[in-house]
Amino acid sequence: MTDPSTPALGVHMEAELVSQPETWRRTAALTAERDLLPARGARVAVVGCGTSWFIAQSYAWLREAGGHGETDAFAASEAFMDRGYDAVVALTRSGTTTEVLQLVEGLRGRVPTIGVIGDASSPLVDLVDEAVTLPFADEQSVVQTRFATTALALFRTSLGEDLDAAIDDAQRALAEELDSALIDAEQFTFVGRGWSVGLAHEAALKMREASQSWTESYPAMEYRHGPIAIAAPGRVTWSLGEAPSGLAEQVGATGGRFEAGALDPMAELVRAQRVALARARAKGLDPDAPRNLSRSVVLDA
What's the whole-number mean pLDDT along residues 241-249? Predict the structure, then answer.
């Protein structure tokens, strides 16, 4: 039991998590900021680390699948930049991550760079050619929630999407009562298709970071190529977005639970964030200051 004289565990994560419908709505009105993102037809690379890399994957899929131009997503430490890109988008909450700063520094004068950054005072703001700052979505908790989804909301609106339905779904995700079977589950596997694969990876990362849970993630069609071997009673396979035909039945046959995400995948991620927070609290863990993690990875030179 938490000592009532001390702050609640994950107080920042909770406040930031529940603010997401409002930050998405606010982002939908950022017309000038959207205009700074790569134009239709541009060949683009999107880079980030951790959560930002997974959001980059979702943006890259949406942009290319929507006919806006060839788009690649890379972990900043593993990026191939000599491919004739018209622009590179660097996504980072803190703007201080070593790998992102080094990559952008190496591109100066060679490839136009656009930073999408939470901290408007960060060093990355002065390194990129164009900076889109989202200080209203920045966070105190080490475990990210709203910056990631708000950046993706920006990207989605830049591609012409209307977020009203997603915002409504996020409000539903916040209002529903959490199932105790999810809070008590032994193991989670998140799966997605298309742009929601990145969100499946992000949901799994949230569960690991916040609650130290055994969690995996895969493209949904890959799940039957081995990973389904761990499905069993007390374990959850959670689909963000529409699942492949027959997958729910196959998971059910193992005795495992199949959670069919019925909401917009970004709102389904909000549900997963809530479960991660609840699991952390049940274990007496504080996701605002998780084990072995910091707000930004800053490496020695």
Answer: 95
**Predicted confidence band at 298 (pLDDT cuts at 50, 70, 90)?**
low
- DSSP characters for 176-218? SPPPHHHHH-SEEEEEE-TTHHHHHHHHHHHHHHHH---EEEE
Rounded to the nearest 10 degrees, what angle do helices 146-158 and 20-27 cross at? Answer: 30
How many of the other CB atoms lie within 10 Å of CB of 130? Answer: 16
Q: How far is CA 79 from the centre of its chain?
A: 19
Distances (CA, A) of 56 to 87, 207, 253: 14, 19, 35
Give the CATH number of domain 164-282; options: 3.30.530.20, 3.40.630.10, 3.40.640.10, 3.40.50.10490: 3.40.50.10490
Q: Which residue has the higher pLDDT, 93 or 300?
A: 93
| 29-158 and 164-282 in the same fold | yes
Domain ranges of the chain: 29-158, 164-282
Residues 123, 101 contacting (CB under 8 angstroms): yes
Q: What is the pTM of this model?
A: 0.94
Nearest to 92 by CA among 151, 5, 8: 151
Q: Write down the pLDDT at residue 5.
A: 41
The secondary structure of 233-254 as a DSSP string is TTEEEEEESPPPTTHHHHHHHT
Q: How confident is the model at residue 8 (pLDDT cuts 50, 70, 90)?
A: confident
Nearest CA among 297, 9, 295, 298 for reference residue 138 = 295
Q: What is the topology classification, in CATH, of domain 29-158?
A: Rossmann fold (3.40.50)
**CA pair distance 127, 105, nearest whole angstrom:** 7
**What integer pLDDT is reported at residue 296 of this predicted model?**
62
